[in-house]
Amino acid sequence: MARRGQDLWMAPRRGARHAREPGVADGGRAAGEPERAASGNPARETPARHGYRQPGWGMALVRVLALAAGLCWPDPPARATTANGNELALYYTEAKTDTERRTLAEAALNKQHFFRYLKVYSLREGETNGYPCVDLELREPSSGMMVRCRVVKSLSLAKLKEDPPTQVGDCVALTGYVVGIDPDAQRIQLGPVIVRYKDRAAPKPGKELLAEVDSSAVIYSFTGGKQPVNVTKRDADLLAHEQEIMAARGKDGWARWLLAEIAKRDQAARAARNKLDIFRHAPAPAATNAAATNAPPITEDED
Predict the structure, then answer these.
(1) Which tens digits make up the pLDDT trace of 22-77?
(2) Nearest CA-CA partner of 145 in 174, 170, 117
(3) Residue 112's closest CA among 45, 39, 188?
(4) CATH number for the domain formed by residue range(s) 83-199
(5) Which of 80, 86, 109, 163 has the fewest CB atoms within 10 Å distance of its CB?
(6) Sign of the C-alpha dihedral, residues 257, 259, 260, 265?
(7) Whole-number Å distance between alpha carbons of 257 and 251
(8) Residues 226-260: pLDDT tens digits?
């Protein structure tokens, strides 16, 4: 019986296409297969002689699905429109050839860049079209390049005049469009800029919070009342009254109190800004003696 069972186990199953002899997977030939002459070149051997199996429909389906997923995958999010001005200055000074510098300048031209740690080298107040302005020349620390710009926007002028007023040696952060780069003078020229905040002179080691340098950064948000409230660094002292107001007036009362106090401070800030000489339009220049001499006479018929 043991012999018969062994013979049955070794016999080919009914319906099998052909019986396999030992060694087929190792390069042997199947039963009934005509013997092929060895070519001597392994690359020319048929896949069956090396046990290779052609990919089936399953693999083809996987490839089709992968291709379809790649075609349907959403586009990556658009990159930020404001580039890093400090990196631009550093890469420009590290460029080895004029071609590299020209390529960098052409890519940066008329694009908005954000600069930090700019040290004020010179500051001159003046007027443009009858309105006050401030001409700044600043030094970018990582490259040593100079950055020249003119501040004309009222809020930026007010930022420069905030107590203590900005002076030579202070540092600022600003955003502006690059309108030119002078390779000989190692200077970047910006169009009208926005002064973001008064900055530190160098990067802070470790983690840096925006509220550490920008007084308009939000440090607290409250949504428990009927109206959401955002508290900036400027109004951080109001948060000391949270428990007192919350216990007396509830969540909505706390939100209303915050909004009222912030509105008072905004009004006071506007009044202080209006006192600054940043909105004035200069009167027309008075006529000189020479101009008065050559002026036509005034008759009674003229108003």
Answers:
(1) 444 444 454 444 455 444 554 454 444 445 455 566 666 666 665 655 555 444 44
(2) 117
(3) 188
(4) 2.40.50.140
(5) 163
(6) positive
(7) 10
(8) 999 999 999 999 999 999 999 999 999 999 999 99
